Structure formats: C-alpha cells, structure tokens
C-alpha cells in the first residue's frame, strides 16, 4: 500500500491520478488551496476505494507552510513513499510581459515553490533511502517560445532542478520523475481551441501512475510529445526566431 | 469567450453555443454576462435530437461535476454529482452488490441527463422510471438560488425537473436509491415470435415473473412477416458459484462512412439474418449484465454507421386501448417505406406512475427505431406515423426527437402548459423553441 502526498490535488491531472491510486486502495494525503473543492475531490476518492484520504489546506507560495505540510502528511499516513507535485498556474503571457510583479508571481508559483518544497522533501526521502518524487513539469520548459516563455522559464527551472536531484537521489534509491504533459483538456486550458494533439487528464494520469510504478526518469505524456519537442529543440535559432510558435 | 460546436447522438445538428463550466458543486450557476443569452445543461450528449442543444445560446457542461459524494454499501443509497455517468456508478457499485434500479439502453448518460429525461428501461413494468428512485437533488436557478428538491421539499419543482428536459434549472447533485444484486449476471431467455398477437401474449405471460422484458421487432417484415421478432426476458441471477464471465471488449466505430451503411440493400438482409440468429424458438442463457443491457455500448460511436447525414430516432408510446392496432399500422407503414433500420425495439410499459410532469412512459406499448436521414421521403413517412400516434392517443419521446410538431407535443403532454411556470427564465433549448414556435 502506497503512502502518497499530492500537492495541488484539485488540479485536473492530479485528481485523475488520485482516482487511479484510490481505486488501487492507496493512502492519500491531499494538499490544495480551496477547501470546498478539495473536500469534493477527497469525498469522491473515499467513495471509490482509497484506504485513507486526509486533506490539508495551504498556499504553496507561502514557503513557511512546507515543513508543517510534510510533517502533517508523514504523521497522518505514518510515513510517506510517494510525492506528486502537480500544482500550477497557466501564465497570462501578455499580462506578464507588462508586469514584473505578475511575471515573478507566476515564476514563484510554477517554479520556486516546487524547488522550495523539494528541498525539504528531498532531504527526508534521502534519509529514508526509498520512495518516488514525481514532478509535473512541461514540454514548454524544453525551449522558450514567444507564446508562453514565462511559464516555460519556470518549468525549465523545475526540469533542471529535478534532473540534478534525480542524479543525487539515485544514490539513495529514491526515484525522481519529471513528467511533461502536452496539451491537456483541463479547466486551466478551457479557453483554448482543442485539436487532435489534446489529451484527457485520464490518459495523462495513467501515464503518471505507470511512470511511478516503473520509476521512470523523464516522461512525455502523451508519448508523441517526445518527438514533437525533439524537433522543436533542434530547429536552428535563425529559423526559430521567424516562427510563431 | 469562444463559442463551441455541440452535437447530439443523432448527429443531425451541429450547433454553436458558448461553453460554460461550473468550477465545483459549491459554486453558483455560471451565466453568460449578456442577459439575453439563454443557457441549457449539457451532459454526455446522448439525447438523439435537439432537446440537449441550445443553438446560439450557452451550454453548461455538467460533466465537470463528476464526483461521488457518498455511498452507503449497507443501504444502497448513493449521492453523486450530476455529471457522473451511469457507467461510473455501475463500476463502483456492482462489485459491492448494488445495481441501478432503472437503466436505459446505454450506460454512457449522466445522472443529470437521466433525471432530465426521466429515462426508463426494460423493467418499466416493475420499477417505473429513473425519477422514481431519486430521493433528492439540488437545483441551481439563474437567480442564484440553490434549491434542495425532493418529493417533500419543493415538490412541484421536483416533479417539473424530472423529465423537465433541463429547462427548470441545473442539477448539481442527486441522491439515488440503488437495488440489491447478488452477482453481475442475468438469466436470459430469448423467444422467437411470429406475430404481434404472440408478442402481446408473451408480455402478459412474462410480466409477473420477469423483471426485464423487451423485444426486437423486424421493421422490414410485411404480410405474413409483419410483427415478427425476438422476445427477450430476464432476471438478475440468484447467488451462485459460477465465475462471472468477463464483459465483452469495447471497440470504437472507426470513422464516418460516406453514406449510411443502413440502407434498403442491407436492411432486409440484416433483419432476416437477425430473426434467424437463434435457430431454436426458445433459447436460455446466463450472461454478464453489459451485453444484456447495453449491447450497443460495446461499439463506441456506433452512431457513425449512419453516415455524414446522421439519423433520426422515433420513439412513441401508445395507450393499451389502441396499442395493438396502432403498432400494426405503424409497422405496416414503416415496412412499406423501406426506410427503417434494424434497431427496432418493442416494449410494453407498465402502469406505475411516472413522477415527472413531462415523463414519457405511460401504460401502453412503446416502439422505438432508427431511421437513417434520407430527407423528404422520410419526413413524409414521419407525417403518416404521427397521424397514427395522434389518433391513438399516443406521444413521442422528446429525448429522441428532432422534428415533432408543437401540436403533437402539446396533445401528447397535456401538462405542458402547467410545466411552463417552472421553467427557469434564463433556460431554453433548441427543442423547446421549436415546440413553441412551430405548431
């Protein structure tokens, strides 16, 4: 039976992943900002089979909450072997370009908060010498594009941090998994026009659960984003600056 | 906000509407900022016609509310958000020994949609409609109210909302009483019948001892073949030690063919083959509940089979008094036209009162079948069928309809005028405007 902490548990991808874990009878500790939404998510997970579901309300951008949060999770579940970090905010690129404050806020939410939390979590996992840390990053972090480079920059921070952490914690038997979902049809992306590249949160969730079970290192989900990003990463800068991605 | 395209199961219409999504069941009703724009809930889009569509208005996506709230395995009482699919309920409760009290022919409908259309199933003569098993629900109105509705509280709005086609407000969650089962199996008997006389005799003989009865009827058969078909009856299996057979694997109809695969060339051949698919007159078997209740769910998007022009479904119910003559007259017209499909279902409804003001079933006999969209020829056939239904005091099912006249609706549902006072002023649908605007 796994003991899993989920950060940003009301996000569509996190909830879909939690549903699979709940159906498998795992123990879950859920953290989110909105108490009502989190209660709705938690009640459902209890009904569909989670052995235990506890909730914790906090704002991830308040770094002082991170240690109490980890303590509470470890106490409630009597241990911890998996963390899924899934919180996030899709930046309003146009607004950020006009506001330093907003730009830094979004980098804080999508990048720094994850790093702050992982700093504590990594030390605890390293000491225990087992476990899985799964982090939702993004293909947007693979190369900055004019349409979303603030979000992309925050995710690049997360991806690079996770890469180093993976190397360090491998020695302690802890798996660090970087998850890069492509376009996912969630409330965060409700205003986008959907095409054939879009995936459901359920499909992405299956990939996440599998990656945690297999202790993968980096996964793109759906898989074809690996190839899309491989091409995008290798477009020569001279051509890239002329594109409107 | 970008308008999106919405369609229904018959694939006849693609309408443009704003898409609104409630963030959680604790929210209030999301509304467009322009007060002239009307709204309608949209679940899984399994209504056949335009009753789930609101062209040029807004549609409130109920699938976003897809969480269970509570389930008591001791009593079978289930509370869930309105966008939960019946399939999700079955996945949860069948292993714990509980089944839907009433289920339509597909499990891919939402709880909200099942209430709004007050759906019925093969056990109508024993359990009545879906709405009879709803203990309470919450209704969001456009004035910001969130009303608890039950047979005791806001009982008039409760009755208007059951079968109310989504016009009385948005259901956010509902509480439903399930029924006990001992395993996922159904003991099934299939009996070949040669005439409507024989069909009605089988109904009388089966209603007391079988919870589920339904029949497939050969809508291409005329003359001596008129009203022949297969009568299917079944019960939940008592407890046993036989291991459960696994449900069949679900496949997807891969693409929309350029023309309907159901056409005069294929129709007779298929119906003939289907009629003789069982060689003995009487066959008994035990099967998993999925192929018994949901044979078409095994082929996802089977509606593509009718090609790019889509299809109509026509479902009527005729009171017993004129039932047999009217069904015979309908089958004669349909066979003569050669326009039908092989999915024709004949079923006797029981005399249990439906709780909804606009609920479809009434004591009598119901005929449902698909028609590939073949334009004018088909509309003329529908006119002739409508006349038979009108004369015999029957009515059509709004959940399946895209074309009935306002007059036929109003004569079939005499409570429609009383119903209008419960419609939420911001709610409307393509179906409702059509009924009001075209006599």
In summary, what is this structure?
The complex is a heterodimer of chains A (245) and B (439). By secondary structure, chain A is an alpha/beta fold.
Outline the structure in words:
Chain A is of the alpha/beta class. Helix content of chain A is 49%, strand content 15%. Chain A has helices at residues 12-23, 35-47, 66-77, 93-97, 100-128, 149-170, 201-214, 225-233, 237-240; strands spanning 3-7, 27-32, 52-57, 82-85, 132-136, 175-181, 218-221. The mean pLDDT of chain A is 94. Chain A contains nine helices and seven strands, in the order E-H-E-H-E-H-E-H-H-E-H-E-H-E-H-H. Chain B has 439 residues and is an alpha+beta fold. Chain B contains twelve helices and 21 strands. Chain B has helices at residues 86-93, 111-116, 124-127, 155-161, 196-206, 264-275, 289-293, 320-337, 376-391, 406-412, 416-420, 430-437; strands spanning 3-7, 14-20, 39-42, 58-61, 68-72, 77-81, 98-99, 134-140, 146-149, 170-177, 179-180, 185-193, 212-217, 229-236, 251-252, 282-288, 299-300, 311-319, 344-349, 364-372, 395-396. Chain B has an eight-stranded antiparallel sheet with strand order 16-12-14-13-19-20-18-21. In chain B, strands 5-6-10-8-9 form a five-stranded antiparallel sheet. Chain B is globular, with a radius of gyration of 21 Å. Chain A binds chain B through residues 34, 36-37, 40-41, 43-44, 47-48, 187, 190-191, 193, and chain B through 1-2, 19, 21, 23-26, 64, 67-71, 81, 92.
Protein traits:
A: 245 residues, alpha/beta, 9 helices, 7 strands, B: 439 residues, 8-stranded antiparallel β-sheet
Give me the count of strands of chain B.
21
The portion of residues assigned to helices of chain A is 40-55%
Largest interface: A-B, 13 and 16 residues
Structural class of chain A: alpha/beta
Strand ordering within the main sheet of chain A: 3-2-1-4-5-6-7
- Molecular shape of chain B: globular
Order of helices and strands of chain A: EHEHEHEHHEHEHEHH
Number of helices in the DSSP assignment of chain A: 9
Helix content of chain B: 10-25%
| Helix count, DSSP H or I runs of 4 or more residues of chain B | 12
Q: Report strand % of chain B.
A: 25-35%
Question: Measured on Cα atoms, how large is the radius of gyration of chain B?
Answer: 21 Å
Q: Sketch the major β-sheet of chain B.
A: 8 strands, antiparallel
Q: Which whole number gives the mean pLDDT of chain B?
A: 93
